[in-house]
Amino acid sequence: MAVKIDLVTEEEKARWPKEVIVLLPDPFVDARGAIQPLVDEDMKSCVLISSKKGTVRANHYHKTDWHYCYVLEGRIEYYHRPTGSNAPPEKVMVKTGQMFFTPPMVDHSMVFPEDTVFITWGRNSRLQEVYEADVVRIDPIEPS
Questions:
Q1: Whole-prediction pTM value?
Q2: 3-state secondary structure of 56
Q3: Interatomic CA distance for residues 24 and 124, integer angstroms
Q4: Which of 78, 108, 132, 142 has the fewest CB atoms inside 10 Å of its own CB, making it the most exposed?
Q5: Is 138 within 8 Å of 107 (Cβ atoms)?
Q6: Distance, CA of 20 to CA of 31 (rounded, Å)
């Protein structure tokens, strides 16, 4: 059975953040506490990821998938560049309480300088067969 992945539309692209770091709206605060809006998009997956200090994740790109990542604790050295580029990747340091966005067709890698926990919301299902049909692994792009 073939895996079905929806094509990305221009309307969808227009809603994507324009910068890697996503500025969050002000939280709703009252006497009970606060509600921090994070992501308000149609999506098919949400995963909680923990990464040990010194480890690396990603070194891939997605054909159609995008993801928002919110760091609950720790830090991520996020490296990215347009897919097909030979330019050195840009490095963005993402800290606790920050969110970043990766659109399709962007080579990316994550290095963890300390134990880190983050949530990732994705456009596509995280079922292994769907994920594998959309991801393209690449040579490492982060500095060694």
A1: 0.93
A2: strand
A3: 23
A4: 132
A5: yes
A6: 33
